[in-house]
Amino acid sequence: MTAVLLLLNGVGLLSFWLSVEFSTPTIQLASEIQQGHSENIVCNIPRLKVRDSTSPHRNISLSRGPDVLSSNNNKSSLEYSFVADLQKDDRTEIICEASVQVGSEVLRKQTRRVLNVVASPFNVSISANRERYKTNENIKVTCNATGKPFPEFSWHLPSTEGVEFSDNNRTIEISSAQSSHNGTYLCLANNIYGKKSARVDIVFEESTHSWIAAVVVVTLLAVLITAGVVLYRCQK
Ligand SMILES: *[C@@H]1O[C@H](CO)[C@@H](O)[C@H](O)[C@H]1NC(C)=O
Ligand SMILES: *[C@@H]1O[C@H](CO)[C@@H](O)[C@H](O)[C@H]1NC(C)=O
Ligand SMILES: *[C@@H]1O[C@H](CO)[C@@H](O)[C@H](O)[C@H]1NC(C)=O
Ligand SMILES: *[C@@H]1O[C@H](CO)[C@@H](O)[C@H](O)[C@H]1NC(C)=O
Ligand SMILES: *[C@@H]1O[C@H](CO)[C@@H](O)[C@H](O)[C@H]1NC(C)=O
Ligand SMILES: *[C@@H]1O[C@H](CO)[C@@H](O)[C@H](O)[C@H]1NC(C)=O
Fold first, then answer.
1. For the whole model, what pTM was predicted?
2. Topology at the third CATH level for domain 119-209
3. Which of 59, 85, 196, 220 has a 20 to 30 Å separation from 187 between CA atoms?
4. CATH code of the domain occupying 2-115
5. Would the CB of 74 count as within 6 Å of ligand 3?
């Protein structure tokens, strides 16, 4: 008797499960999401059928960690739009969860995806140890930027003479600068998605000390000569 009941129960359950077609939700998104661009995520239950009803009660939601980004009650799909941000979105995991009501039971299925955000170079900055220099002083200029993939750096310089490149071209150094090094220093950051530059003017200054010294010496000489001439004349 119990065996028969169990069997009937089993058959009932089996036919119940056979009458439910509920596929795992899918997530559609660009394989490469660009920083600053508007992007779409579509979450969808491709196949859903419960006991001959093609529209049983169901929900779909998209979340990231504890935040629900979007949800749609009694719908089979949802669309979420956002402006991608490298720092905020890259490598974060999103979860699309679908649930379906079958009698008193709620079935749930979910899919996870990790966002891959790429970015052309941005936040390019340039800094120099000095913006005015005198002969034989040293000049050091450093460039920085963000981007994914991480940018490569190159330079446009007033003169490449005596210039040393280091730190993967992020830094240039001139240990003994000359007047030819006066001008605009431009750093260019680039990757496959784009490029961006930053610049700084570094100005050569004649050494004021030697100027003053020269003026003083010339004046002193003039005074001495005049004095000498006057004395010589007076003695005559
Ligand atoms: C859910 O949607 C289906 C059609 O898509 C409709 O037949 C059903 O009544 C809805 N259920 C509720 C609770 O709104
Ligand atoms: C769908 O969402 C509504 C409101 O959030 C909830 O009352 C209902 O139980 C959910 N249905 C399923 C099948 O999860
Ligand atoms: C650049 O850096 C600043 C400060 O770190 C930040 O607030 C900003 O969002 C960054 N991005 C761009 C595109 O400027
Ligand atoms: C370069 O910039 C990045 C991001 O803006 C920052 O995390 C990093 O510390 C900077 N590096 C240097 C050497 O300033
Ligand atoms: C470093 O910058 C110089 C000057 O722009 C460039 O000629 C050189 O190719 C760069 N080197 C690398 C490794 O990017
Ligand atoms: C030095 O460079 C600046 C621009 O950075 C330019 O305006 C100036 O004329 C230059 N001076 C000399 C002496 O070349």
1. 0.72
2. Immunoglobulin-like (2.60.40)
3. 85
4. 2.60.40.10
5. no
